[in-house]
Amino acid sequence: MYPELFTLTLPVLGEFTITSFGLMMALAFLGGYMLLRAETARLGAGRELAADMLLGALIGGIVGAKLYYVFLYWDRTALDPLGMIFSRSGLVWYGGFIGGFLGVMWVLYRRPVAPGLGVDAISPSLALAYGIGRIGCFLVGDDYGRPTDSFVGIAFPNGLPPSTAGNLRRFGAEVDPAIPDAQVLSVHPTQIYETGLSLIIFFLLWRLRRHPHVQGWLFGMWLAMAAVERFVVEIFRAKDDRFFGSFTLAQVISVLMFAAGIALVLRLRRRAGEAAV
Q1: End-to-end Cα, the chain, rounded Å
Q2: Which of these, 36, 160, 235, 273, is most buried using a 10 Å CB contact count?
Q3: Which residues of the chain form beta strands (DSSP E)?
Q4: Residue 145 forms beta bridges with which residues?
Q5: Buried-state track 199-215, b at ≥16 Cβ within 10 A, e below 16
Q6: Does residue 234 register a pLDDT over 70?
Q7: pTM of structure
Q8: Angle, nearest 10°, between helix axes 20-42 and 48-72?
């Protein structure tokens, strides 16, 4: 794993470390932006709209991800609230998505662009950017899965945190009691699972984007597919937020997200059918 790539010495900031997660996050935003820029141009909305949507997604996404993290780990945050909030870690995907969505919608409502067109244009970018971002999680050894003896298992001795038996027990994973806490175990590389599934979703959306549809339909498809992807991967994750029996908070949100996506698709199809009569 390569959590830290190199360190720069800057005049005002002093030493600034470039992390692999930060690099992949930057590449995720850049890749998503380039894709979005091409789509907004193709749809006749102008390339400059992509820059505004990117800014809304960036600001709203980071704020939302941090707020979600504070909510999820309030007991830890309360010990050092400013340190936790302004640290470079602690970015939770669903919080980032909610905040980023609100940021993008704010941009779209301020522009003479139909919101449905805007969210359709950004849907393939979301899938691609998410897949790239998860590579960053893999490189720093974060968000891994439960222990496994299968050929796919990967150990994270320098992960954040390391995949030791003690840490996995703290996450609620089932570990043989005879294994000492300090022993590093192989786990499901759920970050790679998510990257692979997200790229599949991206290619599907990229093909479907030229299919004649009502504005907003493609976004509904992304909502449903992304929700299924996350729900399935959470089954293999080592998580300590299983507040709903064996289900994680992310799985509960995934169910709501899937329902919203399917409801949106059906509503738009019904509206298109009524318009054609």
Answers
A1: 58
A2: 36
A3: 4-10, 14-19, 154-155, 186-187
A4: 237
A5: bebbeebeebbeeebbb
A6: yes
A7: 0.85
A8: 140
Residue that is written with structure tokens 């990117």 in the block: 54
| pLDDT at 212 (0 to 100) | 81
Quote the CA–CA distance of 234 and 260 in Å, as a whole number.
19
Three-state SS sequence of 184-239: ECEECCHHHHHHHHHHHHHHHHHHHCCCCCCCCHHHHHHHHHHHHHHHHHHCCECC
On whether the CB atoms of residues 146 and 185 are closer than 8 A, the answer is no
Mean pLDDT of the chain: 86
Q: What is the pLDDT of residues 69-124, one digit of tens each?
A: 777 766 655 555 555 555 655 667 778 888 999 999 999 888 888 888 999 999 99
Residue 3 scores a pLDDT above 80: no
Give the CA count within 13 Å in the CB-facing half-sphere of 267. 10
Identity of the residue numbered 86:
F
The count of residues in the chain is: 277
Structure-token pair, residue 68 = 């979600």
